User: Fold this.
Amino acid sequence: MNELHVKKIKLIVPSLNEINEVILPELSKNFKRVSIEIVQCPDLTQSPFFLVSEGLSGNENIIDVGSPSYLFPIVNKDKVYKFEDLQQITGSDQIFIIGASGSAWPYHGELAANFFKSGNNVKNDTRIVKINHEKQNCITEKLPINETRFAFLANYYSSNGLKGEVLRIECEKRIGPLDFLTSIRQALTKFYGNKLVGLGGVILIETGKVKVHVMPEFSKTPINSEDDLNKWLKFFEIPTPLVGLGYFVSHDPGLDLRLQHFHLYSEHGVGGHYRCDTEPATIKYTAYLNVANNLYRVDQPDGNYSSN
Assistant:
C-alpha cells in the first residue's frame, strides 16, 4: 500500500429511530408523501441494485479519500488509490465498499464503486459512467474485475456487507425547494450541529428524471473558476430507474469533507453524478441507509476545497 496519511474519527452513532425523527420533518416539508421505517435490509445483490454483497451492516464506516482539489487546476495523476488500500486502513477482514469517486486513467468519468473482498473471495462489479463522444450522451459500463483503482477523490460507505436493520425511506412528489439528498443532509446538520454523524447506502430513483454531470477527459487547460468547471463538465437530464451509491455527513470539522455525494448507474445504460431531480411531480425515491461508526479521512490536502 502506498503511504497514505489517515485520520480515524469516532462518529456519533444515533439509533435508527432517532435518525428517523431527525430527517422526517425536513423530508415532509419537501415531499408530498414520506414514509420511513426500520426494516431488515433487502438482498442488495438482487434487482434492481445488483450489488456484490447482501447488506449494509458490520463494521460500518464512512471513508473520504483525496479531494476535488487534486483535479484542479490541472489533474494530479499521482493521486491513485486501490480498494485494497481501504481494507488495510479499516482493518476489515471482510469489506464491502460502495459509493462515488473519480476513475483512474485510462478511464474517464464517474465511478460507482461496488466491491467486496473476504480472504481470496473478491467480487467487483464497479461501474463507470463516461461520455459517448459519437452520440454526445453518457453511457455506463462495468470495469474489469481486476480493476480496483480509483483516483483523486472518493466518498465511500464500507461495511462487512451483512444483512441487518436499516432505514427504508420512501419519498414521492417533491413540493419544496430541496431535493432528496439535500433534505436529508440539511436535517442532519441542523439537528446535530458540530457533532459528526454519517449515513451511507443505496438509493433507488424509481420515476421522474434527474440532472447529472459526467467528467470528460481531463482538461488540458487550467480550471480556475466555477465557470471553468461548468464549461468542462458535461450535464445531462436522464430517465429513471436509477441506482445511487454514496453517503451523507452532517458536519465538516475542518477535514475538507464532502458532505454528500452519490453516483448513479442503471441497467438501461445511463448514470452520472447526482445533482438534483428535474420532474418534481413524478419523482420517487426509495433509500436503504445505515449509520456509520467511524470516519476515515485519507490523504487530506493541505488546502481546503468545499463542494457538494
